Amino acid sequence: VNALYFDHSSTTPIDPRVANVMYQCHLEGLANPASQHRSGRIARKRLEDAKSRIAKLLGIDGPSASRTRLVLTSGGTESNNLALRGWAPEAGDGNVVVSSLEHPSVRETALHLEKSGCEVRWIPANSDGEIDLEAAAQLIDARTRLVSVMIANNETGVVQPINELVAICRTHGVPVHTDAVQAIGRTSIDFHELGVSALSLSAHKFHGPPGVGALVLTEANDFSPAFFGGKQQFGYRPGTETVALAVGMCHALELATDTLAETVQQMQRMRDLLESKLVETHGDTVIHGLRAARRLPHILNVSFPGVDRQALLMALDQKGVACSTGSACASGSSEPSAVLISMGCSEDIVAGSVRFSVGRETTRQQTLRAAEIIGHLVAKLR
Ligand SMILES: Cc1ncc(COP(=O)(O)O)c(C=O)c1O
């Protein structure tokens, strides 16, 4: 394993307390929560308790809670697919508006919809990594069936103006879906305050178990399921629910919520320390999203002009530093970042970009050591 793990945006280690709660759950040998016998009813209660605690922690409370549904999924990718496909209109029957900054699980689902004849409109980004709200206002109209914009970007950490976007959508009565996968555990999230109609989350991004996430959505008559063959989860996502995964996600969210303020401060301190050390060593380091109104506290996306990102990633890996350069492609390199391209970055800047992401346990000593190694390798690769 990498002693210096700076890739918490990709995944976070499961919290041992979460693993323990899940282990106990498995040992109990819970029955199928859809079974009608006593054992099934016990499993159902555990499942429903976990789901309602998750909903509460996401700000779903009070009278409107009965109109909100929490659908368990396998993670962020599935939640995003479900949301877009669930609301997509038939060809010629309206449009879907998504931002050009979205994670591939939204972007490629939108491209798939486009291929199937659905009209997709793309909101451009500005050079700070935020969506262009004026352009969004032009694209959204009464025929828009869904708008999907993430809370914060997974490559740059830039927080998007969701409240302003929701206000635009309200004037047309259009639902908004938001991908909160990177945001949970890194900023406070309140479903009702956001004013969105659907939100995706994924447990492995906040020290929960991999393989579980959720799509939270307000009751939707026109939502079409992507899967068939069971009555579980309102038929939106049929199949036997895994109680231990729901319990694990719930506990991880409780722990993340309890310590949010300290965690955010700690992550921000380490991210800023890394940022300042890199700029100190190489004055031409480009920090992406620096001028945006807000960035999540854990992500640092930097470009070292003249350095090949893949060569840097591999050299860093050899020295024990884990970071990320975007999705791998067939050549063994990585695809150039669609996010940085949509922010108008030049080829050289895109070619030299890497993402470092700190976690709640990243120490000052680790950060200083990583900065030293990165600085040294950047000089060597030039
Ligand atoms: C913003 C965002 N959305 C969706 C996903 C996909 O989540 P999962 O890995 O749970 O499928 C990720 C994962 O990196 C992400 O960062």
Description:
- The chain has a 7-stranded mixed sheet, with helices on both faces. The chain has a 3-stranded antiparallel sheet with strand order 9-10-12. Strands 1-11 form a two-stranded parallel ribbon.
- The chain is of the alpha/beta class and 382 residues long.
- The protein starts with a strand and ends with a helix.
- Helices cover 40% and strands 14% of the residues.
- 47% of the residues are buried.
- Helix 7 links the parallel strand 6 and strand 7.
- The protein has 13 helices and 12 strands.
- The chain binds pyridoxal-5'-phosphate (PLP).
What does the largest sheet look like? 7 strands, mixed
Helix content: 40-55%
Spatially, the strands of the biggest sheet line up as 2-8-7-6-5-3-4
Q: Outline, from the CA principal axes?
A: globular
Radius of gyration: 21 Å
Low-confidence stretches: none
Strand segment tally:
12
Helix vs. strand class: alpha/beta
Q: Estimate the strand proportion.
A: 5-15%
Could you give the distance between the termini? 27 Å
Give the bound compounds: pyridoxal-5'-phosphate
Order of helices and strands: EHHEHEHEHEHEHEEHHEEHEHHEH
What would a concise description of this structure say?
The protein has 382 residues and is of the alpha/beta class.
Characteristic key phrases:
single chain, 382 residues, alpha/beta, binds pyridoxal-5'-phosphate
